[in-house]
Design brief:
The protein is an all-alpha fold. The protein has one domain. The longest helix is centred in the last third of the chain and has 37 residues. The chain starts with a helix and ends with a helix. The relative contact order is 0.10. The mean pLDDT is about 90.
Length: about 70
């Protein structure tokens, strides 16, 4: 969980910097980069969430049946 928290802090910093660069330069590639970062982060959070559910419920329930 610590790695995930550090990653989210890094993503927040990247988004702030990309937003600031867009405001400073008015170059839309910074908005595109920010959007790609958000999409990748959401995908990563979904994967971690599914792994958490798998570990929490499926594997624990499997041990009960054995």
């Amino acid at each position: 969980m610590l790695i995930l928290r550090l990653y989210l802090i890094l993503v927040a910093l990247i988004l702030v910097l990309a937003g600031g660069m867009y405001i400073f330069t008015r170059n839309r590639r910074y908005l595109k980069f920010a959007w790609q970062t958000v999409r990748f982060t959401l995908l990563l959070i979904i994967v971690f969430g599914l792994l958490f559910v798998l570990e929490r419920y499926v594997l624990v329930a499997w041990k009960v049946f054995l």
